[in-house]
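hey so u asked for the seq, here:
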Amino acid sequence: MRNWDENIERFDAYHSGRLSPAEREAFEGQLADDETFKADFEAYISEVAVIKSLGIREEMGEVMSEARNSGKGRLMYFIPLGVAAVLTIVLLALPKKAANPEELFQQYFEPYPNAISGREVIGDIDKALNLYVVKEYEKAIAIFGQLAPTDTVNFYKSMSHLARGETKPALIGFRQITNESLFYEPTQWYSALGFLLAGESDSTRVYLTRITSKDVNYEAAQAILKAISDSATTK
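ran it, structure tokens below
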């Protein structure tokens, strides 16, 4: 009968170089003499290679230990469950990682559309907006910076900064948008995303709670609030 717990510990210790010279020699001797032991070790190495490629190898030892101590049964890494099943077992056992602000930002950020498109007269603001639409944000910012600071200019200049990940000038510009502006409501959403990207969770919450169920971004705002809350509880 195979001693799975002992084998897991020995395989992991050998693979990570934690065996003494004498233990290493005995281990390699068993590999040479015991075909079953050798097959199990080769299966272990195969699984570790896949797990390591996912960036979770460092947590594997802890997962093994928790599974053994929980009394829920041995970790059967070496039975023919297939790689997908093995990874599922390991991933489910790992603790949830805190929400990454940058990942949340990338998930929910979409540049605001050009709200004044379709005009026949082409002026500097139209040139800037056309550059904004094709994501030439740096060039758009340069032109917006030469224009009189209206709500439209401030909003799209700030949007361009935010799209480039430049949170400080974006948030400064958003604060200049008046509450009577067409852009006031979307400014609450994009200000929240700006604070999120800047890692300022308290300010992010303040702006997200201003978004009501009547707003188009309400569900997204609630999802981010939940992610921030879940992240805080895992720290």
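Residues 4-93 form one domain. Residues 49-68, 70-96 have pLDDT under 50 and may be disordered.
lmk if thats what u needed
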